[in-house]
């Protein structure tokens, strides 16, 4: 099974990884893992003011801050996962990436906001659920 781990570096990512580590049926070396983090898109005016290379360099640095600890955790558990990062709207980007990579499941932490907050502001988890064509496991 190919499992996409959507991570953002928050405490919710750590909870998700702890959950996986205690559930051998999901956290097995026979599965293939892809770790993805999504960086927010920089507004075009900012991009033009500071330059594309500066923006891309900044986004890469921020992505590495999120991906490095997750990769280390997985390696300690004998899992050599592929890592990737994208820029865009997180929920839609995660769902599109899962389709493009032909993942069988998406696993991610959930911040657990209220229904009212989701209605007003939206939520990455809600967007992933709305756009994803594969099962999504949310860990709270």
Automatic annotation (TrEMBL):
Cleavable signal peptide: none
UspA domain sequence ranges: 2-140
Pfam families to which the protein is assigned, alphabetical: Usp
PANTHER family attached to this UniProt entry: STRESS RESPONSE PROTEIN NHAX, UNIVERSAL STRESS PROTEIN UP12
Family affiliation: Belongs to the universal stress protein A family.
Full protein name: Nucleotide-binding universal stress UspA family protein
């Amino acid at each position: 099974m190919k499992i996409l781990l959507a991570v953002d570096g928050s405490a919710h990512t750590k909870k998700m990884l702890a959950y996986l580590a205690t559930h051998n049926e999901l956290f097995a070396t026979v599965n293939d893992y892809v770790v993805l983090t999504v960086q927010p898109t920089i507004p075009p005016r900012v991009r033009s003011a500071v330059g594309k290379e500066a923006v891309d360099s900044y986004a890469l640095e921020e992505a590495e801050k999120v991906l490095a600890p997750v990769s280390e955790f997985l390696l300690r558990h004998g899992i050599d996962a592929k890592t990737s990062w994208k820029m865009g709207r997180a929920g839609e980007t995660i769902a599109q990436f899962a389709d493009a990579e032909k993942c069988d499941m998406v696993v991610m932490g959930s911040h657990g906001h209220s229904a009212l907050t989701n209605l007003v502001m939206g939520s990455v988890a809600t967007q992933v659920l709305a756009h994803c064509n594969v099962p999504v496991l949310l860990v709270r």
